[in-house]
Amino acid sequence: MKLTIPVLALVVALLLVASQSLYTVDQRQYAIKFQLGEIVETLPNAGLYVKMPLLQNVKFYDKRILLMDNPEPDRITTSEKKPLLVDFFVLWRIIDVKQYYISVQGDEEAARRRLSQTVRANLAEEFNKRTVYEAISVERDKIMTTTRQKADADAKTIGVEIVDVRLRRVELPPDVSGPVYARMESERRRVANELRSLGQAESEKIRADADRQRVVILADTYKAAQKTKGDGDARASAIYAQAYGANPEFYAFYRSLEAYKATFRNKGDVMVLDPSSEFFRYMKNQGGAGTKASK
User: Fold this and answer.
1) pLDDT tens digits along 59-87
2) Contact, 87 vs 70, CB < 8 A?
3) I need a labelling partner for 149 at 20 to 30 A (CA). Which of 2, 72, 178, 220 fits?
């Protein structure tokens, strides 16, 4: 019995020493082994490791991608001296745990402050080079890429890497957006009026051209019609001349009959003429020979 107690005590002591001597590193973590406050070893890989109790201790740091969120949008001025509210976030991770510990004593908040200052300074520099339109629209991706590259170069000096910089929101402050939107509305209205005026001018031009073409077409048609009519009249006259030239006496007689018909169309018509006038020539002479003799 006397021997059992010391043996149990020894076993417990050995177990305590073993528990303090063994430790595991998770695959999501880095580990740094210290001896009397000095860095002895960095352990980037997961596994089971041994340390000397009391003399050595281990600290763990996250290997995963970390988020640095901007609590309040920054007010940044563009090249036009126009203020913008810029909201962003940063993705970063530790790549050199030893340098990370030496630079910021392993303090994640200190690292965040350092990265925040770097990213803000580079964002302000990029926005200061661009207009509002470029910053909001056409060069937004370029701003993020350039800012990430510049901030990453500084971040590597403290053992971390900037994975990405993203602009969550870029907008005008409330005290500026009202006048800007009013100017935009005025500009759009001016452009609309200009386009409307151009449309009306083009409409008048098209209408005038259509009227001109109408007049030309009518004139050409009238000209062609008159020519056709003239050709027809000339042909009719030629036919009449040819027909009447074959028997002039019959033509004279036919014309007199037409004159009689037109003159005595109504029963109440009255004419005062000399009976011996040429008008009654064919009424007095019924034969062709008598007619000729009377001439």
Assistant:
1) 999 999 999 998 889 999 999 888 999 99
2) yes
3) 72
